[in-house]
Write a structure and sequence with these properties.
The protein folds into 2 domains: 1-48, no CATH class; 50-215 and 282-399, 3-Layer(aba) Sandwich (Vanillyl-alcohol Oxidase, Chain A, domain 3). Helices cover 37% and strands 20% of the residues. The protein has 11 helices and 14 strands. Strands 1, 2, 3, 4, 5, 6, 11, 12, 13 and 14 form a 10-stranded mixed beta sheet that branches. The mean pLDDT is 82.
């Protein structure tokens, strides 16, 4: 009886599996091939576009504060992903830009990389905020750079936050640059970076790259299928609730307002105020990469790599947030024991990968996905803006004569 019963059960189960096999097979194929399809259409869309590389030369008498750069960043905060059809059938994606500061043998330049179809809008927005600048399309400086481990050494790294995204870094407002002080009284956090880049020696190059795209709600909300969540702002509310000892469900204080406020230190009050200021402005997903390359005999690891890391310290806030190298990414050992990396095979491979990622300006998608941080326009404008006369670095490219107005023949 047991044998007959088991045979009957197995037979019924087998019939059910056979009946539903097309559905099961379709589901399995969807799980396996859907990511491959998405990567395929995104790559096809990416390579179907033309890209423009812009060099920005600054006037000698530039007096604009970083607020002007913040207004420019507002103009490129494009949150449009296209429809779901456009995303998953055509591969369209949220536009990204690369804001770059480079030094080639001590010559410092400000660069921008963008889709060619958005070039006119970017140039127009730049001229509207900085009438005296000169913007011209040039060849990508990375195009002709070839890494040869026999003659060249290359170090590449990425940076991440020391704390969670909602904690802000030290911005130009904290340095008092929003009040437009006279040049002799300005303390600009980008100046040490420019000075460092201006001292890069012969046959050496240092590149800074900030790949940005507009931050949007892109996390599926728990318990839903299509409704999206913003973990960045949710995390900010959680931190504030914890500081204020507030019930996150009712958003009411566990104690009375008077008791709660009296129990907060000045530092806690300042933290809440800073986080609220950060989330109140438009935000970008940002990937930070940097590369140092030099001839083997000139490679200066302590000063150059140490200088790169030190360049970010001026944006760090002891009480809030700061930057540190992401040790999980591109952690190639330049100097190691032979048994750790035989003939530098691993180091050379990682050097080629980080160079390829940098050249492609790829950070948010395969084949070189990174770990983006969230910076609002105020923070990003602090890290990438055009310095005034306070930056006297000889190698900083500037326009020799003053421009009266924006050119009338902007490309269409």
């Amino acid at each position: 009886m047991i044998t007959l019963f088991n045979s009957a059960v197995y037979s019924d189960v087998l019939q059910v599996l056979i009946a539903f096999s097309p559905i099961i097979l379709a589901f399995v194929l969807l799980v396996i091939f859907w990511p491959l399809w998405v990567n395929y259409v995104r790559s096809k869309f990416f390579f179907s576009l033309k890209y423009a590389f812009l060099e920005i030369k600054l006037p000698r008498d530039l007096m604009k504060s970083p607020l002007a750069m913040e207004l420019f960043l507002n103009s490129i905060h494009n949150t449009s992903d296209g429809s779901n059809f456009a995303q998953y059938w055509k591969g369209e994606k949220r536009p990204s830009y690369s804001l770059e500061i480079i030094s080639i043998e001590g010559v410092v330049k400000f660069m921008m990389w963008t889709e060619d179809r958005r070039k006119a809008g970017v140039m127009g927005a730049l001229y509207s905020q900085f009438p005296g600048i000169e913007v011209k399309e040039v060849e990508d400086y990375t195009k002709n750079f070839i890494y040869d481990p026999k003659t060249t050494k290359l170090w590449g790294g990425e940076f991440k936050f020391t704390k969670e995204n909602p904690y802000p870094i030290k911005t130009y407002i904290d340095y008092g640059l929003d009040k437009d002080p006279k040049e002799e009284f300005k303390v600009d956090p980008i100046t040490p970076m420019i000075e460092f880049l201006g001292n890069v020696g012969k046959d050496q190059q240092i590149w800074f790259q900030f790949i940005v795209r507009a931050h949007v709600k892109d996390q599926i909300k728990p318990g839903t299928i299509f409704k999206k969540n913003d973990n960045y702002k949710d995390e900010a509310n959680k931190i504030i609730n914890e500081i204020m000892i507030r019930d996150p469900k009712t958003k009411k204080n566990v104690e009375t307002d008077e008791t709660m406020l009296a129990g907060l230190s000045d530092g806690e009050k300042e933290t809440i105020k800073s986080i609220e200021r950060k989330v109140s402005k438009l935000a970008f997903d940002v990937g930070i990469r940097t590369i140092y390359a030099a001839k083997k005999e000139l490679f200066d690891k302590p000063n150059s790599i140490g200088g790169i890391i030190s360049s970010f310290k001026h944006f760090n806030s002891e009480n809030h947030n700061g930057f540190k190298p992401n040790g999980d990414k591109w952690s190639a050992k330049l100097v190691g024991s032979p048994w750790e990396d035989y003939k530098n095979i691993r180091a050379n491979r990682l050097a080629r990968l980080v160079l390829e990622a940098y050249k492609r300006r790829c950070f948010f998608y395969d084949p070189f996905p990174g770990e983006p941080i969230v910076l609002n326009t105020e923070e990003l404008a602090t890290m990438y803006h055009f310095p005034g006369q306070v930056a006297i670095t000889p190698g900083l490219a500037r326009v020799p004569s003053k421009k009266g107005e924006a050119p009338s023949n902007l490309p269409i």
